[in-house]
Amino acid sequence: MGWEFRRSAPSDNVMVPATSDPFESPKWAPPVWHMPPVLVLLVNLVRGLVGLVLVLVRHWPTTLTVAGLGWLTYLGGWQLLTLLAGWVSLGLGCWAWFGWPTFLSLVLRPARARWRYLTVYRRNWRPVMVMSGLAFYRNAREYLPTIVRVEVTKTTDRVLVKMLSGQPPSIWHDHVENLAHGFEAAICRIRTAKRPARRWRGRGRAGQDWPGHIWLELVRDDALSKPVSVTALPASQVDLSRLPVGRREDSSPWLVRLLGTHLLIAGATGAGKGSVLWSLVRAMLPAIRAGLVQVWGIDPKRMELAFGRGIFNRYSDDTSGGMVDLLEDAVDEMSKRAARFGGVTRTFIPTVADPFIVVMVDELAFLTAYSPDRDLKRRALAALSTLTSQGRSVGVCVVGALQDPRKDVINIRNLFPTRIALRLDESEQVDMVLGDGAYDRGALADQISPLPEVGAGVGYIRLEDSPDPVRVRAGWVSDADIAAMAAYLSEAA
Ligand SMILES: Nc1ncnc2c1ncn2[C@@H]1O[C@H](COP(=O)(O)OP(=O)(O)OP(=O)(O)O)[C@@H](O)[C@H]1O
Predict the structure, then answer these.
(1) C-beta 300 within 6 A of ligand 1
(2) What is the mean pLDDT of residues 143-157?
(3) 476 CA → ligand 1 middle, Å
(4) Residue 3: its pLDDT value, please?
(5) Which residues, other chains included, contact 211 with Cβ-Cβ below 8 Å and sequence gap of 6+?
(6) What stretch or stretches form a coiled coil here (predicted)?
(7) In contact, 229 and 364? CB cutoff 8 Å
(8) Hey, where are the domains in the chain?
């Protein structure tokens, strides 16, 4: 070991003249100052002490806990410490027993997040960043993005990252595969970060997008790899803006709004569109029974809705015009309501006299594109366009399923404010359904498994408050469940 201080920044290099060969060109090297050993030791000692104080201050909760425990041991010996540990364990046990949700969110999850941070993310951060090409080198210095926080849920880890200055999130989107493999996750997605409320800087901007920061969402266990059981029949209260139809990837309920919107479900054949339709009907069942909601079913294929036709207030699978008549009846009802409500109210509240009408169409494309009768096609398109452009405010909602979302098949898809992309054949179709950029943001609907038990009912949605798609799976409604639903309604009749 040389007794010297080196300044390692290459930008600080000085020219070192060649000593042996006067014709040799000079070299550039860091400057070296020779110092007395005592001074070097003293400086290193001061550096070490300052570093220690900084670590103790930065980790002040741990410092205080250890200091407190040490002081207690000094006062009462190890017996006092054991007694204390017993009381703390008992307290935590009681908390977990009586208040599991708060124990989970305030103790267990933060502890697990800390553990995952130490054992997975901090440990592998540098190699993963370097191998993914997300680190940056300049003048022999390495610059790494930094981990701000780690959060865990039952199935997913979320890592808040401060990117390098000037680094765009799109670079991270390009490396999701490296990140998933590097941190041993099944899936990695990049999410927009929002400014936290507690920061003293920019407090007024809390909840807005946080430039320079992103969330890495790393799915450890795929909670949607097995069929999701059907949702329980709701109690009498039905909230038409939060209908439970399945589960989200983070294991929370997947809630769908129908009040004040129209819903388009796109999915290739066998993608599980039927399970979304039936889950919606199931979620509204008490309101249907109470007469506050009416579901009008249209099933050109005669395979899906036909099975539970008794559940629908009106139903048609008549390809020779009955289905279009039903759509036009819905338009008539809508116009009558508009005439009555106009100037009186702007908010629709379902009543028995004016129930919320859901027009459910299993294969929209049959009406808009595949029907051989040109006139019927024109009438169907006109009725659907009118309903989807004017029906929201008077309590008429269109729920349409279709296999092919291309424009030549359905040119009114933008009139459906809420859209669900189940398994699709091509990646381009994802943006057609969910909007531009959805595929890049992680809605990989073309990669959903075609195996029914793994991928049927799995899809992506976009929530109202975020551009980032969320992976969901609809509850699996079996034929027996549909029969039970029909029986539930006929009991009341
Ligand atoms: N949510 C689900 N969970 C598990 N399996 C499902 C789910 N939904 C559907 N399936 C399975 O996938 C099969 C196909 O589903 P479904 O008929 O609903 O697809 P689809 O999208 O309506 O197809 P198509 O457009 O051809 O009618 C069903 O027979 C069922 O076995």
Answers:
(1) no
(2) 92
(3) 8
(4) 47
(5) none
(6) none
(7) no
(8) 100-219, 243-340+348-492
Question: How confident is residue 34, by pLDDT bands cut at 50, 70 and 90?
Answer: confident
Q: Please list, in sequence order, all residues whose beta carbon lies within 8 angstroms of the beta carbon of residue 12, skipping any fewer than 6 positions away.
A: 30, 31
Which residue CA neighbors atom 15 of ligand 1 most closely? 272
Name the residue of 264, 269, 275, 471 to mutate for ligand 1: max ligand atoms within 8 A of Cβ: 275
Q: Is the pLDDT of residue 2 over 60?
A: no
Question: Is 256 a residue whose pLDDT tops 70?
Answer: yes
Question: In the 8-state DSSP scheme, what is residue 134?
Answer: -
Whether the CB of 395 sits within 6 Å of ligand 1? no
Cβ atoms of residues 243 and 280 within 8 Å: yes
Q: How much is the pTM? A: 0.75
Give the integer Cα–Cα distance in Å for 486 and 308.
7
Report which protein residue has its CA nearest ligand 1's atom 12: 452
Q: Is the pLDDT assigned to residue 262 strictly greater than 80?
A: yes
Structure tokens at 124: 């592998």
ipTM of predicted assembly, 2 dp: 0.95
Question: What pLDDT digit, counting tens, does each position of 63-112 carry?
Answer: 999 999 899 888 888 888 889 899 999 999 999 999 999 999 999 999 99
For ligand 1, the distance from its centroid to the CA atom of residue 424, given in whole angstroms, is: 13
Does 159 contact ligand 1 (Cβ within 6 A)? no
**343/58 Cα distance (integer angstroms):** 62
Q: Is 267 a pocket residue for ligand 1 (Cβ < 6 Å)?
A: yes
Q: Which residues are within 8 A (CB) of 47 and not within 5 positions of it... i.e. 6 or more apart? A: none
* CA 234, chain centre distance (Å): 25
* Superfamily (CATH H level) for 243-340+348-492: P-loop containing nucleotide triphosphate hydrolases (3.40.50.300)
Structure tokens at 184: 């041993």
271 CB under 6 A from ligand 1? Answer: yes
Q: Is the pLDDT of residue 195 over 90?
A: no
**419: helix, coil or strand?**
strand
At residue 374 the predicted structure's pLDDT band, cuts being 50, 70 and 90, is confident
- The span from the CA of 102 to the CA of 89, in Å, is 16
- What residue type is assigned to position 137 of the chain? Y
Between CA 30 and CA 39, with CA 33 as vertex, the angle to 5 degrees is: 135
